[in-house]
Design brief:
Number of helices: 3
CATH architecture of the domain at 51-274: Sandwich
Largest sheet: 9 strands, mixed
Helix content: 25-40%
Distance between the termini: 26 Å
Strand content: 35-45%
CATH topology of the domain at 51-274: Immunoglobulin-like
C-alpha cells in the first residue's frame, strides 16, 4: 500500500509539475514581451516656436541655442543661449529683450558664484561694458507648454552693439517613441501667427524677430550612450568635442522650410535618438521572452501528454471491470 501511494504521488508530480512550471514560464515570457513593447507617447507639437522680441526695434539680431546636458529619460536639458543685436534708437526708458521658447524653461540662478544667469554687455572700442539688468523673468504658458524669458535693461549712451547670453533648464520637448528610442523636437517660428499673445502682455507693441529677421544657429550635444537614428533637417556640421562628445550644428535655421502657402506658423528640428543601454535591455527581454515561452509551452504539452496517458490507462482499467 505505501508503495502504491508513493507511485501515485510520483504520477501526480509527473503530471502537474510540467503544467505548473510551463504555465509559470509562459506567463513570465509574456510579461517580458510586454515589458519590451512600450506604447509610444504622443509627441507634443506647438505652433509657437523659438523667436526673439524687443520693446524697441533692433537690427542684425542673431541668436544661438546650444542644447546641452541632455537627459532623454527625464525629458530635460540645459539651454545656453548667446545673442547679439544692434540698437540705434534707444530711448532713456527701460528696454525689453525677450525670447519665446518652445518648451517649459526656468532661468538658472547662477552657473558661477559671480555670474548672473542673464547677461547683456555693450561693445565700445572692442571693450565690453556691462549693462544693468533691471529685472529678468520667466513666464510659463502651461496650456501651450512654452515659456517667455525676458529681461529689462537700461541702454548705454553712445553704444550701438550689444551681446549677451542666458542659461535655462528646459523640459517638455523630448518624448519617448519606443522602449529605447526618443524624439527631440525644437520648434522654430516662421511667421507672425507663431507669436503667442503672452509676449504682448509683458511687452506691449513688441517687435518680433523670426525668419529672415533673425540669424539663428542651433547646436546639440549628443548625450553619452546614445546613437542618432534620424535627423530632420540634416545638420550643417558635426564637431567632436574634447571629451569625445559629438555636437551637431544647424546654421541659418530660420531659412529652412517648405514652399507651402500660406506659410506654416513654425517648423521643427527633429532628432531621433536611441539609448544604447535600453536597446541592449530590450534585446535581452526579447531573448528571455522567447526562451521562457518556448520552454513553458514545451512543458505544458508534456504535462498534457502525461494527463492523456493517465486518462488512457484509467479508461483501459475501467472498461474490463465493467465487463
Amino acid at each position: 500500500m505505501p508503495s502504491r501511494i508513493r507511485l501515485s504521488t510520483l504520477r501526480l508530480l509527473v503530471i502537474f509539475f510540467p503544467l505548473g512550471a510551463g504555465l509559470f514560464l509562459t506567463v513570465s515570457g509574456v510579461a517580458k514581451l510586454n515589458e519590451a513593447n512600450i506604447i509610444p507617447l504622443e509627441q507634443w507639437t506647438t505652433p509657437y516656436g523659438f523667436l526673439v522680441f524687443s520693446s524697441t526695434q533692433l537690427q542684425n539680431v542673431e541668436s544661438h541655442v546650444w542644447i546641452e546636458n541632455i537627459n532623454i529619460k527625464d525629458d530635460a536639458a540645459l539651454f545656453n543661449i548667446p545673442f547679439s543685436f544692434r540698437l540705434t534708437n534707444a530711448s532713456s526708458e527701460e528696454q525689453i529683450l525677450g525670447f519665446q521658447l518652445p518648451c517649459t524653461a526656468e532661468l538658472l540662478d547662477t552657473l558661477e558664484p559671480s555670474e548672473s544667469s542673464f547677461i547683456i554687455n555693450g561693445t565700445k572700442e572692442d571693450d565690453l561694458v556691462p549693462v544693468e539688468i533691471v529685472n529678468k523673468r520667466t513666464v510659463l504658458v502651461e496650456e501651450e507648454r512654452i515659456s517667455i524669458v525676458y529681461a529689462k535693461f537700461a541702454a548705454l549712451q553712445d553704444i550701438v552693439y550689444y551681446s549677451g547670453h542666458f542659461y535655462c533648464t528646459s523640459k517638455g520637448f523630448i518624448s519617448r517613441q519606443g522602449f529605447s528610442t526618443y524624439n527631440l523636437v525644437f520648434s522654430i517660428s516662421k511667421s507672425k501667427p507663431s507669436t503667442h499673445e503672452t509676449v504682448f502682455d509683458y511687452c506691449p507693441n513688441a517687435y518680433t524677430y523670426y525668419g529672415k529677421d533673425l540669424t539663428l544657429l542651433v547646436g546639440l550635444t549628443v548625450p553619452q550612450g546614445c546613437e542618432i537614428k534620424r535627423m530632420q533637417p540634416s545638420p550643417s556640421g558635426e564637431h567632436v568635442l574634447g571629451d569625445s562628445c559629438t555636437r551637431l550644428v544647424w546654421y541659418n535655421l530660420t531659412e529652412f522650410g517648405s514652399f507651402e502657402f500660406p506659410h506654416p506658423a513654425s517648423e521643427s528640428l527633429i532628432v531621433s535618438m536611441e539609448n544604447l543601454v535600453e536597446s541592449e535591455l530590450r534585446n535581452r527581454l526579447f531573448f528571455d521572452s522567447g526562451l521562457y515561452m518556448g520552454l513553458g509551452v514545451g512543458l505544458i504539452f508534456s504535462g498534457i501528454h502525461e494527463v492523456l496517458k493517465v486518462a488512457s490507462e484509467v479508461r483501459s482499467h475501467v472498461e474490463p471491470s465493467k465487463q
